[in-house]
Write a structure and sequence with these properties.
The protein has 634 residues and is mainly beta. Helix content is 13%, strand content 43%. It is built from five helices and 40 strands. The chain has a six-stranded antiparallel barrel with strand order 2-5-6-17-16-7. Strands 8, 10, 11, 12, 14 and 15 form a six-stranded antiparallel sheet that branches. A four-stranded antiparallel sheet has the order 20-19-22-23, with no helix packed on it. Strand 10 and strand 11 form a beta hairpin. Helix 2 packs antiparallel against helix 3, helix 2 crosses helix 4 and helix 3 packs across helix 4. It is flat, with a radius of gyration of 57 Å. Keywords: Cell wall, Membrane, Peptidoglycan-anchor, Secreted, Signal, Transmembrane, Transmembrane helix. Belongs to the serine-aspartate repeat-containing protein (SDr) family. This is SpaA isopeptide-forming pilin-related protein.
Length: 634
């Protein structure tokens, strides 16, 4: 029903709100109450009671608000309005045409089957459900966000029920219970004459059955299902009794796992909310009805027929020809996966019996620590003669590995000609030298313990390496080590002194290596100068500049390091230069004056005068600036 204060709402808003109820499922599978399918269905909808409410105005405390109409069809079945802004139908014939949303279905199910948010009073509960529907589909016209007088405490119930409805999933609990099963899950077979015959199976079939069929799998071409009268079974009904019959000649001694599946097609339904309409200007209504769907069920029963049995044997050795005990094997079925038997060798032999007819595989699953697992999947076939299959000798490779040593200097550069020695547990040694890449490798085997040691350094290098207790655990295992040697280093130390042993600074010395690279250093206050040097080089050191006022020479060649930390120390003397005083006797030589003009003498006199003038001017300027600066300071 439309309230007075809402009569002037435009029709467009109603149409917009009506679209909220868009259908989720097809319309062709809607049922009326009962099993009979009615699509579409027609009902005459009338008002049972008008202007029903349990809420009062929050303004004056007594005016009824949020009033609704109670609707029923010609059979007295309840209907709910879904367009609050339009008047309710009264005596109008409505037709079903679509399934409503999950929220409306949830609300109608709550009314029909109960809900914790309802009171148990059907009249009040009808109002709660109708109010929740209006609040969802007409949230503005039927708002519940005011503090209405709520004597029955229904507002919290409406809101809680609405929240549940908006999160409700699609219906998932069928109305009808359809069943299809067998009275047993497995078949037992026995050989009767030339046929394998199973025990009887009874079919249980209930519900709205449309059709049934059978599927026989993992059987021979002429396998049949036979009833108690000897007739072949092709479909099922409740109580159908049958047995499976398989010709023995079609098995050829092999194992078989036959099964039969009964398939049934049923009709079932869900309770859903269905929209009824057809009269513009009046509210559509919702009805709680059945929606049909197809339901498939099946039942399966299967059995096992054992194959003819046989056996297998073999001998187990290592590549060193030793018999190997406690090696584990599995025998797999023809699928290459299913484990039939497990074997552990004794005295180097393995055997298994009771193997089914057909193809099998022997797979090694565990061997001794010193040997490589044989990964071969060995096939063999047990035939109807039940013979013993001899697989001969199966070998395991003794595990091997390597010791790899990378020889480098302190900068990671590979070093050749480093000698390494491998020693085994019996004291047997093997000596190898690193190649140009700094690499040396030794082959090793399981069942032994090794050590490797650097027994000779490359020329000019120092370092030590010893690795013990090397044992092969895995095949192709590599024990890899990087061994660094340090180039031998040393110093050239020169003490520079005078003839009295007094230290002299500022003497220049030059170190030159075998490639002509030079380094120049000068003695300090103590007369000391030091040069760093390395092995595998030849050096010379020379005094290339004497201290001021001193004379002397020094050259030391062919300096080569033999030991790490070696010091070449030299004391170099210089002699102080002597000052020789000379007496110069000036002789007066009488010469005759030149008759040429004395222009040179006049020029010298002029230059002297100019120089004195410049000097006097400079002093004057200096004194003037100084006096000015003094005044500024004061």
């Amino acid at each position: 029903m439309k309230q007075t204060k809402l009569k002037n709402k435009v029709i467009n808003s109603v149409l917009t709100l009506g679209m909220v109820c868009g259908s989720l499922l097809p319309t062709t599978a809607v049922f009326a109450e009962g099993i009979e399918k009615l699509a579409p269905v027609k009902h005459t909808v009338s008002i049972l009671e008008k202007d029903v409410t349990y809420l009062k105005s929050d303004i004056d405390g007594f005016t009824p608000v949020r009033m609704v109409d109670r609707l029923r069809d010609e059979n007295g079945a309840i209907k709910f309005c879904i367009n609050f802004d339009l008047p309710s139908p009264n005596g109008l014939e409505y037709e079903s045409y679509e399934q409503l949303d999950n929220a409306t279905t949830y609300l109608m199910d709550a009314y029909t089957n109960g809900n914790s948010n309802l009171t148990g009073d059907k009249a009040i509960d009808e109002y709660i459900v109708q109010a929740a529907i209006h609040n969802i589909k007409s949230p503005e016209s039927f708002s519940l966000d005011r503090n209405f007088v709520d004597d029955y405490g229904i507002l919290p119930r409406i809101k809680a029920l609405k929240a549940e409805a908006l999160n409700a999933p699609a219906p998932s609990i069928p109305v009808f219970e359809n069943k299809l099963s067998f009275d047993k899950a497995s078949l037992s077979f026995e050989l009767v004459g030339e046929e394998y015959v199973s025990d009887y199976v009874v079919t249980n079939l209930k519900g709205n059955v449309v059709s049934t069929s059978k599927v026989v799998e993992n059987a021979t071409p002429n396998t049949k299902l036979i009833d108690e009268n000897g007739n072949e079974v092709v479909s099922f009904s409740d109580g159908t009794k049958f047995k499976m019959v398989i010709p023995e000649t079609e098995l050829e001694g092999q194992a078989l796992s036959p099964s039969v599946t009964a398939k049934g097609s049923f009709t079932n339904a869900y309770n859903v909310a269905v929209r009824y309409g057809g009269h513009a200007g009046f509210q559509d209504v919702a009805s709680y009805e059945l929606k049909e769907f197809s339901e498939d069920k099946q039942a399966t029963v299967s059995g096992e027929i054992e194959a003819v049995k046989g056996s297998v044997k073999f001998v187990k050795k290592g590549t060193d020809e030793k018999l190997l005990d406690n090696v584990q094997f599995k025998i797999l079925a023809s699928d290459g996966v299913t484990v039939e038997k497990e074997i552990v060798t004794e005295n180097g032999e393995g055997e298994a019996s009771g193997l089914a007819y057909g193809v099998h595989y022997l797979v090694e699953t565990g061997t001794l620590n010193s040997y490589v697992l044989n990964g071969e999947k060995i096939p063999f076939t047990i035939n109807h003669n039940q013979e013993v299959i001899d697989l001969g000798t199966i070998y395991n490779k003794l595990k091997t590995g390597k010791i790899a040593v990378h020889k480098v200097d302190e900068n990671g550069k590979p070093l050749a000609n480093a000698e390494f020695t491998k020693t085994d547990s019996e004291g047997i040694k093997e000596v190898k030298t690193t190649d140009e890449t700094g690499l040396v490798e030794f082959d090793i085997e399981a069942n032994n313990v090794y050590s490797v040691e650097e027994t000779k350094n490359p020329l000019g290098y120092i370092g030590a390496f010893l690795q013990e207790n090397i044992t092969v655990e895995d095949d192709n295992q590599v024990f890899e080590y990087t061994v660094a040697n340090t180039l031998k280093t040393g110093k050239i130390i020169i003490h520079k002194v005078d003839e009295n042993g007094k230290a002299l600074k500022d003497a220049e010395f030059t170190k030159t290596d075998s490639e002509g690279i030079t380094e120049v250093k000068i003695t300090d206050e103590t007369g000391l100068v030091e040069f760093d040097i390395e092995a595998n080089n030849i050096y010379s050191v020379e005094e290339t500049k004497n201290p001021l006022g001193y004379t002397g020479t020094f050259l030391q060649e062919n300096i080569t390091i033999e030991e790490n930390g070696q010091v070449f120390e030299y004391t170099v003397k210089n002699t102080k230069d002597k000052i020789i005083e000379k007496t110069i006797i000036k002789e007066t030589v009488k010469t005759e004056k030149s008759t040429f003009p004395q222009t040179g003498e006049k020029a010298n006199q002029l230059a002297l005068i100019c120089g004195l003038f410049v000097m006097i001017a400079g002093v004057s300027i200096y004194l003037s600036k100084k006096k000015t600066a003094q005044k500024n300071k004061n």
